[in-house]
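Quarterly update from the structural biology core.
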Amino acid sequence: MKMCVPSLLCSLSLFVSLFLAFPSATTSFDIAKVLAQNPSFSTFSNYLTQTQLAGQINNRQTITVLAVDNGPMSSISGKSMDFIRNVLSIHVILDYYDVKRLQHLDNKSIQVTTLYQASGLASKQDGFLNITDKENGVVSFASASEQSNGAANLISSIHSEPYNLSVIQVSNLIIPSNLSNSPGHSNTPSPPLPSKSPVPIKSPVAPPMSPNAHTPKANSPTASEADAPAPDGSAKSAAPTNFGLNGAFLILIMTFLCAFHISI
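Predicted structure, tokenized:
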């Protein structure tokens, strides 16, 4: 049974539309917009943007952010961006944990991986957090490092997108001692290198020309030499047209339609 060409064309057009729209149908979120709803986290949000951690968070499919309000954030004010980046990346857990899940841990205590561990910059256990479900709904977060500057407690949920994004407020920053005591975290810029005065270059003096010297005439280029391309490759060939995946797909469909039309 033959298929009508207009019906076939409509079907293929619908298929192409779905094909082109498919890449944009992915789950995404914006951590800066989430935190912007509460001005108390403006410092935390600004540091995420300045250290480019916000982009890494937005590119993750499953993430938990332990946000700290403006008060405790003042403890790292004036530090270098590298130090702030490392500290904040400890507050990003590479899994989904909302308040309900945190308050019903199976073993009452678990160890989770942070974005700091994924960066490859963490030493020893600095890139891991220990989460403990205590009595009366109290949940604490502490560095898995043997030396740590205290723990932070769960306060409340800020935002939740089940199994994708969970933003939770904690009481204070979690900073491993290995990170806070490490050198190279001052914000003092390195002194500029001393500039060297350029040494004048003397051009050689050409010897005087003898009055009897004969200056040879320059030979005119032959026809073959005049037609030869310049050695610096100034005559560039046109680059081939780079068709994208969608363009090639559409050309394939049009070729199929032409062949189908001719066959009927």
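The longest strand covers residues 152-161.
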